[in-house]
């Protein structure tokens, strides 16, 4: 695998069933298979929704993700690889919200349809937030404090809202979206809120 990312977050992150790791160009066919599907991309960002059409586009997407930490080290997008099979189920990420300066940060996820229904997105996002809050504690210039993290989705994206609920993010309801067109179902967490929820979380 060609490592593309230069995240300062210690990687990979291992969970019970997943390896969260940077994407490499070897993943391009799987990325194309995920992002070439309207059923996946129609939930990501604002329209128009244009399915990915080539391996070149997939490699560019991988390179763009790899460059994310250059603008803000707290931002990272990781392949969620199922450890038992080596199959990339999808992506979990912390990214800047569009048109925000300094950037508001959001947590997000998407899976290949063949990998839904197993809890992988929840498991991956939880581990990513745990790792990011632990590492980005403001103790050094390359470890800026991670505090508020947003999560927004189309109001009818019930599977995504269910993930935010399982993670214990604070549910703000359906509001005018500050970063995207129209209304969104918005969730939020903070360092204190996440730490508190972590304490309450069952071990498994
Ligand atoms: C949103 C999306 C990631 C949700 O996928 P998902 O598989 O439902 O989410 P998870 O991976 O957390 O899995 C949860 C499901 O697995 C089930 N599950 C099975 N085994 C499980 C386990 N060991 N642990 C947890 N959940 C498990 C849960 O019960 C739940 O199923 P349910 O909704 O039928 O109750 C997926 O639909 C997707 O990629 N959609 C397109 C892109 C998108 O909308 N992204 C979000 C934009 S805001």
UniProtKB/TrEMBL annotation:
Keywords: Transferase. InterPro entries: Acyl_CoA_acyltransferase (IPR016181), GNAT_dom (IPR000182), N-acetyltransferase (IPR051531). PANTHER family: GNAT FAMILY, PUTATIVE (AFU_ORTHOLOGUE AFUA_3G00765)-RELATED-RELATED (PTHR43792), N-ACETYLTRANSFERASE DOMAIN-CONTAINING PROTEIN (PTHR43792:SF1). Residues 18-192 form the N-acetyltransferase domain. It comes from the Bacteria. The keyword Transferase applies. One of its GO terms (molecular function) is acyltransferase activity, transferring groups other than amino-acyl groups. This is GNAT family N-acetyltransferase. It comes from Mumia zhuanghuii. It holds the Pfam family Acetyltransf_3.
């Amino acid at each position: 695998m060609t490592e593309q990312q230069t995240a300062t977050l210690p990687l990979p992150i291992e969970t019970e069933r997943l390896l969260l790791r940077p994407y490499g160009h070897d993943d391009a066919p799987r990325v194309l298979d995920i992002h070439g599907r309207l059923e996946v991309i129609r939930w990501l960002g604002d329209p128009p929704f244009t399915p990915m059409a080539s391996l070149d586009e997939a490699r560019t997407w991988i390179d763009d993700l790899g460059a994310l930490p250059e603008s803000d080290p707290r931002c990272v997008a990781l392949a969620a690889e199922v450890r038992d099979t080596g199959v990339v189920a999808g992506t979990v990420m912390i990214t800047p919200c569009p048109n925000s300066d300094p950037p508001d940060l959001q947590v997000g996820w998407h899976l290949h349809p063949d990998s839904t229904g197993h809890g992988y997105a929840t498991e991956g996002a939880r581990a990513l937030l745990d790792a990011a809050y632990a590492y980005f504690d403001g103790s050094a210039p390359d470890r800026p404090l991670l505090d508020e993290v947003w999560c927004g989705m189309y109001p009818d994206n019930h599977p995504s809202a269910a993930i935010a609920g399982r993670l214990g993010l604070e549910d703000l309801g359906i509001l005018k979206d500050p970063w995207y067109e129209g209304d969104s179902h918005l969730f939020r967490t903070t360092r204190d809120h996440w730490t508190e929820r972590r304490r309450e979380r069952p071990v498994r």
